[in-house]
């Protein structure tokens, strides 16, 4: 079914590549450096500064949403990596400043606006920007900052730190004395800024020439709405069931919030798409108000949550609205008339809130799909599984033999953590497990 290359260890490979790149830039700094060392503390502090700077520059690549990379690594994994690396990068830059102040107390004078206003202003700006970026990332919700404004501010602050960082590296000149080294740092920084411009400006501009429109909307169980999207004046996109897209609603894709949603319709050859969206936060809680005729812009498809050609059997574990990408896979298999034996363990608060339940029951009646709804608060007459998706419950249903089986899990974070850990305990190979995490911030 899938045209996406199978690359099960893509994330590990990408992390090694990333480490290699960071090491390479340290190597570039040291090669041909004519001066003797300045003591361990100073050299260590300077090294941290270079590493933090390179990691910060790479952050722009991690968030540039390249489709090919998302198909190998998974965009959710990439964005989680971006978040983790972000903390290290900012910590390294702060440590760079702290260690140098400690090792050479004379440097503290650099904060004195009276001595060298430009240098002091730059240093203060970086320190404040670093603090702001850390505080708003850790406590965004408590501070009442919307995701959209946080994202704009986050990119702007990162850009400011990067720009001042480059000027600082070039002005200090230590380890960067030759023209080729200066060119290396300048072009690396320009590439990072270019990626920001590409992701935030060029891509939305390109999307403007391929508009979509919302042709129908209807409510689903579980406080969700399905939006049918139809391409206007173009042939739409070709996707693999299980993939997702970034959706912008409104007259223009420029400077508007983009939200990721899995495609819930099957890959049936139609140019129309459906996304099913749960009412959750400031954007999605108003999704039911979207009128047919509303303009939309689609960036995608992304992701590697797809069934590959070698799959002989599939196990799906879904929780709540995490059913959407799985629904697309099941609909496609059913539509194509070649369903493979599948098991769907579906965690739901109650049957009334189970999105797509009737259609799933219909597929299960007609295709080799074993549907196991797991109801958290069951009604009186319920005789199926109840409670949460626990290891014991999984053991009751999962196949003993893993060969040919592909495993998919998508749902709330605690459920996914528990299910993934239990898959590992049961010896399910990582290469056969696909996870899609909806919480990427
Ligand atoms: C790969 C993927 C597929 C998804 N598929 C679906 C789906 O099929 N159906 C569905 O209902 N939900 C899906 N989601 C979740 C959906 O994107 C968020 O629920 C939605 O963006 C929340 O927006 P909000 O402004 O209403 O919520 P808020 O309350 O503002 O935010 C809640 C959380 O959603 C995330 N979020 C908010 N805005 C954005 C944004 N612009 N970009 C990225 N993340 C954001 C953040 O983690 C935030 O903490 C998916 C998420 C991902 C990553």
What labels would you give this structure?
46% helix; 6-stranded parallel sheet; Rossmann fold; Elongation Factor Tu (Ef-tu), domain 3; 3 domains; alpha/beta; binds flavin-adenine dinucleotide; 441 residues; 12 strands; 6-stranded antiparallel sheet; disordered N terminus
Give a nutshell description of this structure.
The protein has 441 residues and is α/β, with parallel strands linked by helices. The chain has 3 domains: 10-206; 212-302, Beta Barrel (Elongation Factor Tu (Ef-tu), domain 3); 313-436, 3-Layer(aba) Sandwich (Rossmann fold). The chain is built from 11 helices and 12 strands.
Topology, please?
Layout: H1 10-30, H2 40-62, H3 67-73, H4 75-103, H5 117-138, H6 147-172, H7 179-208, E1 212-220, E2 224-231, E3 244-249, E4 259-262, E5 273-278, E6 295-302, E7 313-319, H8 323-336, E8 342-348, H9 357-366, E9 369-375, E10 385-386, H10 391-397, E11 405-410, H11 413-425, E12 433-436
Parallel strand pairs: 7-8, 7-11, 8-9, 9-10, 11-12
Antiparallel strand pairs: 1-2, 1-6, 2-5, 3-4, 3-6
Helix pairs in contact: 1-2, 2-4, 2-6, 2-7, 3-4, 5-6, 6-7
The chain binds flavin-adenine dinucleotide.
């Amino acid at each position: 079914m899938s045209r996406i290359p199978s690359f099960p260890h893509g994330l590990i490979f990408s992390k090694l590549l990333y480490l290699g790149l960071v090491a390479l830039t340290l190597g570039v700094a040291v090669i041909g450096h004519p001066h003797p060392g300045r003591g361990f503390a100073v050299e260590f502090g300077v090294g941290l500064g270079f590493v933090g700077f390179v990691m910060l520059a790479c952050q722009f690549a991690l968030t540039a949403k390249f489709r090919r990379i998302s198909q190998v690594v998974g965009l959710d994994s990439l964005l989680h990596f971006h978040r983790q690396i972000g903390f290290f990068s900012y910590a390294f830059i702060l440590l760079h400043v702290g260690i140098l102040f400690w090792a050479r107390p004379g440097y503290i004078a650099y904060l004195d606006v009276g001595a060298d206003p430009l240098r002091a202003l730059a240093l203060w700006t970086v320190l404040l920007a670093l603090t702001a970026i850390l505080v708003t990332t850790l406590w965004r919700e408590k501070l009442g900052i919307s995701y959209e404004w946080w994202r704009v501010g986050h990119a702007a602050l990162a850009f400011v730190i990067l720009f001042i960082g480059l000027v600082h590296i070039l002005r200090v000149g230590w380890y960067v004395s030759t023209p080729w080294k200066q060119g290396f740092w300048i072009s690396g920084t320009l590439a990072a800024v270019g990626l920001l411009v590409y992701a935030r400006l060029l891509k939305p501009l390109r999307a403007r020439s391929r508009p979509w429109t919302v042709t129908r909307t209807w409510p689903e169980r579980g406080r969700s709405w399905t939006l049918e999207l139809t391409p206007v004046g173009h042939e739409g996109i070709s996707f693999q069931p299980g993939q997702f897209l970034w959706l912008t609603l409104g007259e223009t894709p420029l400077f508007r919030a983009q939200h990721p949603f899995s495609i819930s319709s099957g890959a049936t050859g139609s140019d129309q798409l459906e996304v099913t969206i749960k009412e959750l936060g400031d954007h999605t809680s108003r999704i039911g108000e979207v009128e047919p005729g509303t303009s939309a812009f689609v960036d995608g498809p992304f992701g590697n949550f797809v069934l590959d050609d070698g799959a002989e059997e599939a196990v799906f574990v879904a929780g709540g609205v995490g059913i959407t990408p799985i629904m697309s896979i099941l609909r496609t298999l059913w539509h194509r008339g070649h369903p493979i034996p599948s098991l769907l363990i579906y965690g739901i608060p109650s049957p009334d809130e189970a999105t797509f339940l009737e259609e799933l029951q219909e597929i299960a009646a007609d295709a080799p799909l074993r549907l196991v709804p797991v109801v958290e608060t069951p009604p009186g007459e319920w005789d199926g599984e109840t409670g949460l998706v626990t290891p014991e419950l999984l053991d009751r249903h999962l196949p003993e033999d893993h060969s040919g089986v592909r495993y998919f899990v998508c749902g709330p974070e605690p459920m996914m953590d528990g299910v993934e850990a239990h898959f590992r305990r049961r010896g399910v190979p990582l290469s056969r497990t696909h996870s899609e995490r909806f919480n990427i911030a």
